[in-house]
């Protein structure tokens, strides 16, 4: 019993420790004159949420969607449309952005989930590219050049949205709650049923599970979370362009999940953090930054096929 507790307690406390470190980061960064990195870490948090939402359907549900960034773009452009219409509350625009992205995911999933395998991948890609070209054609929102927000949506409660640290803490709280909810969802009966469909869809149908309905709900929820990530991203950057929903961005999200670990609790956040940090460091030192990142993906596939999150969990177990 003592050994089991010694192994479980550090792992149980790890999320709280990570959250505490992230919460203290703006204060530490300000002390050392590294205010730029407050926005950078906030961007990592947003992509951690986007990658975790993709991991929810791909890692736990077995649905390899090559168009997930499309929902991120829907959420971002919903913020643009609402602020252009005069809606100033961040909480309203974020909620509506999440709902619109979930609705878009439901419509895409209603068609895509009637196919399997490579056909599902290609149809989700096709829908994402359709969304991409729709927003490229919207000249009122900048078209291919993108759109710059005149001002950030208001947070209310006496919070200043123009203060980078304040916005950071708000994003951190939202992402933490969203990741907690996704973690609880994967451990629920719904999550277990989704994993069962991934492993043996025929058996789950024979047991009476509504496979299509469960997959569609999961796909819609993941799309909504991606839309929330897009809304937070455009709020922080005050800028959005159709490139955020191009298929290459969807491919990057898949790579993040694979590097972090398919179906691992921390797969999405770890993959997003490693990818974005290495991308930032390599861009500062070489014009050929794609090559090392490609080598990282190959090395992960060869030596850590379950992802870096699984490797870190194994190392933590060995140390403890």
What does this structure look like?
By secondary structure, the chain is mainly α. The protein has 13 helices and two strands, in the order αααααβααααβαααα. A two-stranded antiparallel sheet has the order 1-2.
Task: Provide a concise account of the structure shown.
The chain is mostly helical and 320 residues long.
Low-confidence stretches: 1-7, 316-320
Cα distance spanning the termini: 15 Å
Helix content: over 70%
Rg (C-alpha, Å): 20 Å
- Sheet-strand content, in percent, reads under 5%
Q: Strand count, sense and closure of the main sheet?
A: 2 strands, antiparallel
Number of strands: 2
The helix-strand sequence is: HHHHHEHHHHEHHHH
Q: Report the mean per-residue pLDDT as an integer.
A: 89
Sequence of strands across the biggest β-sheet: 1-2
Q: Indicate the overall shape.
A: globular
Specify the number of helices: 13
Structural class: mainly alpha
Topology:
Blueprint: H1 2-31, H2 36-58, H3 69-84, H4 90-112, H5 117-136, E1 147-148, H6 164-187, H7 189-199, H8 201-206, H9 211-237, E2 239-240, H10 247-260, H11 267-285, H12 290-303, H13 308-319
Antiparallel strand pairs: 1-2
């Amino acid at each position: 019993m003592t050994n089991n507790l010694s192994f479980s307690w550090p792992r149980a406390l790890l999320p709280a420790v990570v959250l505490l470190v992230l919460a203290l980061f703006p204060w530490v960064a300000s002390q050392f004159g590294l205010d730029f990195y407050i926005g950078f870490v906030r961007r990592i948090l947003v992509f951690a949420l986007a990658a975790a939402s993709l991991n929810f359907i791909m890692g736990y549900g077995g649905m390899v969607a090559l168009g997930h960034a499309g929902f991120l773009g829907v959420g971002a452009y919903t913020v643009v449309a609402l602020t252009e219409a005069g809606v100033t509350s961040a909480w309203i625009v974020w909620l509506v952005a999440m709902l619109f992205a979930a609705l878009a995911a439901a419509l895409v999933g209603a068609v895509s989930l009637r196919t399997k395998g490579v056909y599902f991948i290609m149809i989700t890609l096709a829908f994402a590219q359709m969304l991409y070209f729709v927003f490229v054609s919207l000249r009122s929102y900048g078209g291919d050049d993108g759109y710059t927000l005149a001002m950030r949506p208001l947070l209310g409660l006496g919070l200043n949205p123009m203060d980078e640290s304040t916005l950071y803490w708000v994003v951190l709280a939202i992402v933490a709650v969203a990741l907690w909810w996704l973690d609880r969802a994967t451990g629920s009966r719904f999550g277990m049923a989704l994993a069962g469909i991934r492993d043996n869809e025929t058996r789950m149908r024979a047991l009476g599970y509504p496979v299509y309905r469960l997959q569609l709900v999961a796909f819609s929820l993941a799309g909504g979370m991606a839309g929330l990530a897009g809304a937070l991203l455009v709020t922080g950057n005050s800028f959005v362009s159709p490139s955020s929903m191009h298929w290459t961005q969807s491919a990057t999200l898949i790579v993040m999940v694979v590097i972090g670990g398919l179906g691992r609790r921390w797969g999405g956040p770890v993959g997003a953090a490693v990818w974005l940090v290495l991308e930032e460091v390599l861009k500062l030192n070489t014009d050929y930054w794609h090559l090392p990142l490609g080598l990282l993906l190959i090395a992960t596939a060869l030596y850590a096929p379950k992802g870096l999150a699984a490797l870190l969990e194994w190392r933590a177990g060995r140390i403890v």
